[in-house]
Description:
By secondary structure, the protein is of the alpha+beta class. It folds into 3 domains: 154 residues, FAD/NAD(P)-binding domain (3-Layer(bba) Sandwich), CATH 3.50.50; 49 residues, no CATH class; 84 residues, D-Amino Acid Oxidase, subunit A, domain 2 (D-Amino Acid Oxidase, Chain A, domain 2, 2-Layer Sandwich), CATH 3.30.9.10. Helices cover 25% and strands 29% of the residues. The strands form 5 sheets. Strands 1, 2, 11, 12, 13, 14, 20 and 21 form an 8-stranded mixed sheet that branches. It has a 5-stranded antiparallel sheet with strand order 16-17-18-15-19, with helices on one face.
Amino acid sequence: MEKPSFDVVVAGAGLGGTCAALWLSTSNRVLLLSGTASAASGIAAGLVNLFAGQRVVPVWHADLAYKDLLDTLAHADATDTYNTSGILRPALNEEQAVRLRTLALEHADSFTWLSRDETHARYPYVSAPFGAAVTTGGVVDTPTMLEYTHTTIASRCTVLSSDLVGWEDSGSGVTVALKSGPSLHASKLVLALGAGYRSFPVLSALNLHCLKGQIVRVRAPEYPSCSIPVSGYGYVVPLRDKLILGTTYEHSYQDDQPTRLGSKNILALTQQMVPCLEAADILDTAAGIRVGVPGTRLPMVGPLSGNVWVLTGLGSKGLLFGAHIGRNIANWISNPEHVPYELRLQKKRRI
């Protein structure tokens, strides 16, 4: 095999691939293949939420992942893309109110409980008959964050707008075949392909599932600009002069385009939390394909072969998981045994 042109080729420039390339390029010759298809990361609302779902369960390694996100933003000169406003979580019923009040006692540094009257006084545009909690988190302007990060990456490694079409692991390195241009040679290849993994039959053995998520962008005159995001029945995220409403979780879909039904469902849900959205002006809609691992909310990281690694399954937690994996992937590639047990590929292959 020819002498490697790069230490690492990272295929895919969504949140996972971008964060990996950012940290790997501090000590390696890195090529980032940005591809030609848009990634789901580009339309994400950018909600940084450390507690997931209606059960309000802490995200895996939440505190560490959050620190890695802050460090990643700083490393990419993108700190100003993050608004650390916190997240308002209206209790959806009395049972959840009890859960949120308990968390406010157990995690006083991350939760502040507000009664119904306190919530109304602070956020009169929000309906919260059972009270609400304000949690640590906020909103990253994801498209701008990716733009800043790509600029930082481009100053110290190579970025190529080309698609991966195949690879061959010889044991001593990897030959990387591109859609345009000659093949490249690298010591390691990281596959951060998002939904693009479906183009490679060898990856079908991995237990992955594609999920379509739609958002609606609106302008609501009664919703204060620079306000706090709201999460419960879907989410309402202020970004610049717009609100991003989301999202759908479509396990079966005809195509990857937004639909009227998806928009209708999103508006119906979010209006339960923020009634003034009924009069909002719809600006546009968008949809993206997220990749998850069935049966778990965790991503998948590890060697597919000796020199080819997979980084996928970030789901709706691309900011937290992407930053955490990116921060650690150089160590994990050198020491595969350091990959957390919960994320390892061999635990997540199809049976």
